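S.,

Sequence below, as promised.
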Amino acid sequence: MAGVIFLFIGLAACSIGLSRRQAGMRTLTWLGVWSALYGAAQLSQSTAVVAALPHGLQSVAPYVSTAVMYLLPVAALLAFRDLSLGGFRTLVQLSTLGALAVGVAGILLFVAGRSSPDLMPYNNVLAAGMLVVLAVVAAAPGLASRFLALKDRRVLVAGILVFALEALYNSLSRPLGFPASRLLDHVGFGFLLASFGFVALQRVFANERRLLAVENELEIASRMQMAILPDGAPEIRHLRMAASYRPMTAVAGDYFDFIPVDGRGVGVLVADVAGHGVAAALIASMIKVAVHSVASRADDPAAVMGGLNRILSAQPGSQMISAAYLWLEPEQREARYSAAGHPPLLAWRQDRLERLVSNGLLIGMLPECDYPVCTLAISPGDRFLLYTDGVTDVENGAGEFFGDSRLEAVVRENLSRPPAEFSDHLLAEIDRWRPEHAPRQDDITFVVVDIEGPAAAGARPGTRLT
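The prediction came back faster than expected:
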């Protein structure tokens, strides 16, 4: 019965421990192995269990019993190791290697025909010695805080004390003429195992609370980041615009914005901070503040890019940023474009697709940098697409990128779709390219701008953000 109980507990603990990877779970896994080996040892030594096995397996039972008994201290020491720190952890690791060497040698001797207990005393002495050291370390507050990864050492100390008293009683009972009790062995081991399990689960629950707190903070950060993005495009005569923004994680390093000027024109900015996660998101949020500082020069892309570079380069720990800025003034039939190490602007003009490159250095490389400006005439029917490299860098199952040529094909084949509908279609094409359930490899951001003629001047521009 004890064998079945400990084997079941061990297998259950291993299943739980292996299902998740976090602090405390590995300790739980090794405790499961320890308990399962103890249960297997009891079952392999039971004549009733061995007799119930098929005849072919009965001859294997002694080998299983010997192997399990030699490996029990190894599993125990591995559980000790995951609770230890510093020099004590090194000592436990060396003891584990010693126990493993003794165990392998003992198993080989048994297979060679020698009796199983030949080396068992050495393993027992090693395990007992480490248990005494662990008890001393756990009982001393100064040592426990320095060498053990525990929040509450009292339960572990109690479990070790109960196990030690049981072992001491069984050691002295035979010489003193008292009957030895196997039930006490199981009870003592159960107390020790339960104390280890308690401290392991404490670590798991503490880690879960930390993860929950981090997730809550990331959710708040995500809401704040979404709040700094425009909720729609401004209304500019003869322009229709739509933007799409898909962060890879809760927070992103991509940013886009619109800078309208007196209803006559608008600047469209798309930026991509190097890296991912919270650091990139903080820099992306700083771009919002920088944009307000350069808004008065919105019709001059070189001044906008230069101003952003000066402001963001001055920030401590600033990261590299690629950016593209397009100024559109439909009444004057003119557009001006400048960029900083950014993917080319895709422009459908005069019945052909152009890739416009007007790049200066990445923002943040040098405090002072000149950004070239490309000036072009615009007319009704033109379409512009600004995007981050997360659009073209999406990989399929074969490791192939979505790429520039495929993006250009999507633009050519969907010129009749309005910007909002085109945005949905492009996102659908990207989703089809990426394997199902595969995580996003980068943030995806793009802005589509259409130039419309006077007949559409009264129409409301597309203002949806997806």
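Residues 2-217 form a domain with the Rhopdopsin 7-helix transmembrane proteins fold (CATH 1.20.1070).

Coffee later?
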